Amino acid sequence: MPGVVAFVAGLVFALGLGIAGMTLPRKVLGFLDVTGDWDPTLAFVMGGAVAVYALASPLILRRPRPLLAPRFAVPTRRDLDARLVVGAAVFGIGWGLVGFCPGPALVALGAGVPQAAIFSAAMLAGMGAYELTLGAERSQRAAAPRVDAGAAAARVDAGAAAARVDAVTAGAGADG
User: Fold this and answer.
1) pTM of the model as a whole
2) From CA 79, how far away is CA 74, in angstroms rounded?
3) Dist. CA 134–CA 90, nearest whole Å
4) What is the C-alpha separation between 40 and 33, in angstroms, rounded?
5) What SS3 state is found at 125?
């Protein structure tokens, strides 16, 4: 059942991208060209998506769990780091240069758009380069032993308590 729901959701998403014109690089580039022949229609598409998310997300997250999963997978990190900022900049530059981002490119690829094939190949190459460089670093971090801060603090507290007991006991023995 989850596979069918994922397929239908992907199909609806693809149709939405196609209807909104987000699979047409000229439409996206027209939206990004704010100093030339600007096409504001994608602003309405994005605004509509943000509005739906803003209204639906709090309602959905009130549920004890998702309909088709054991728990919600909500990111907990809220910090900005250099890798996120650089990645966002590279994404934005690529989007501005060619008018594709991953979702619309895959939909256009399915429609047989030649530029989407070139973009998709470049996207896969970039993903592979990431995995060969930064992905290996992530794997090494994941394999490294993790220190449980709570358990480490408990061991330190227990050690300090034992040292105090030893000091008191040693003091009592010296006085006795």
Assistant:
1) 0.64
2) 15
3) 15
4) 10
5) helix
Q: CA of 136: how far to CAs of 121, 129, 130, 140, in Å?
A: 22, 10, 9, 6
Quote the CA–CA distance of 139 and 75 in Å, as a whole number.
19
- Give the distance from CA 83 to its chain's centroid: 12
SS3 content of the chain, % helix, strand, coil (to 5): 75, 0, 25
CA-closest candidate to residue 109, choices 2, 43, 12, 14:
14
Distance, in Å, from the CA atom of 23 to the CA atom of 39, rounded to the nearest integer, reads 15
Contact of 29 with 39, CB cutoff 8 Å:
no
* Neighbour-count burial of 57, counting CB atoms closer than 10 A to its CB (0-12 exposed, 13-18 middle, 19+ buried): exposed
Q: For the chain, 176 residues long, give each residue's pLDDT as a single digit of tens.
A: 778 999 999 999 899 888 888 888 998 899 888 898 899 988 898 899 999 999 999 999 999 999 888 999 888 888 888 888 998 998 899 888 999 989 899 999 988 889 999 999 999 998 898 888 887 777 677 676 655 555 555 554 545 444 444 444 444 444 44
Residue 116 phi/psi, 5° resolution? -70, -35
Strand, helix or coil at 22?
Answer: coil
- What is the Cα–Cα distance from 81 to 49, expressed in whole angstroms? 26
Amino acid symbol at 59: L
